[in-house]
Amino acid sequence: MYELIQDSKYKGGDFFNFSKTTLLPRHRWYHLKEGFSASLVEEAINQKLSGKVRSLRIFEPFGGTGTTPLVAALNHHQSTAIEVNPFLAFTAKVKTSAGKWNTDRFNVYVNRIIEESTRGEYSPLEGFSTFTERDVLTKWLFNKSVLRRYTSLVKVIDDVGGTYRDSLKLAAIVAAYDCCNARRDGKALRYKKNWKDLKYSDKEFVNRFRVRASVMGQDVASHSINSEFRPIIINGDSRKLLSTLDNKSFDLVVTSPPYLNSFDYSDIYRPELFLGGYVKDNNELKSLRLKTLRSHVQTLWTDDMSFESMLLNPIKERLKNNEMLWNKNIPLMVHAYFDDMHQLFQELKPKLRRNGQVWLVVSTSAFGGVHIPVDLILADAAIQAGFSLQGIHCLRQLRTSGQQWKHFATKLPPLRESLLIMSV
Q: What domains can you pick out in the chain, each with its CATH number?
């Protein structure tokens, strides 16, 4: 039904490799494992401009930590992004902050914060869940000295305030995560093998904070953002907030929605959400989870779906009563994911100007030995919403688990990451 372009001109590391992006100024302030390539955003902009010199209006419905709006701002384009995770939205705002800093004053500010936070302070996270050591736990996320110094340091940052407050708060959160006993691995936080031997301390936290702050100072000095092009970053659910934006506002959308991989992004970013005070308890975390795209089974989603597709129907049948599924709610999740994306496409189309384009990166998935061609089904959902398909480009092949791979008669990795280009 839809042709996949295997030998695409976009195939190659520059268009999918986020690790290269994490080395770039401002982008490197926080590493989002699920991020996508800044090069891809630049390519989309260049293709849309076609040699013309003008300022585009760019939109990103799944803002993450701001790759799309940051590239837009550094290249003098207007942009708006929506991100449901409040910590990630905060990070995007900090990365795209405008203006220049006085380097000497910034360094004095950093030193003052460190000096005034030496005593540490009791953290409200002590004894909560698995955040710190207590009698019933054999593993915990943070050693108390790290958490107490972090708490004291952030309090000084808030008390002093000023131009650098948000940037240094981000540096503190990231430095604390640097000293976390666990790390993100796939869909979970997993404890580092030698986490007890590492013995993270308040001294290590301060060293990490100083390094993070220094990098920020260097990047702002070399890559300042003009206030005219500072993006609008909105924290919320794009499925609901899109209707509040003006019609025919944007020339280009560059995005990568959550993949259909059952990752609960509200859970794997739990340390930062609690450290930053963006959620106060598990009820608030649950409330955030309910606002996310229906791409995981950590919530039992309601069966209120209208989207249907000739491509999706046989997938649903193969998943139905599939004894190899690790969770019985996977069939519901799969249908709900495409229903959400179809709704988003419907809301998105009126927001684009004539000849507006959407560049969307996504991967296929597999559950219970069933390959789900997410890229093809999303193309169908977009066409049903009124978009014209310009191409489905394979960016790279992806591995899946050995348990899944054995069900596919192929020597190549059975999954793929693709770029969909659509227009109105």
A: 4-86+226-266+301-423 (3.40.50.150), 103-221 (no CATH)
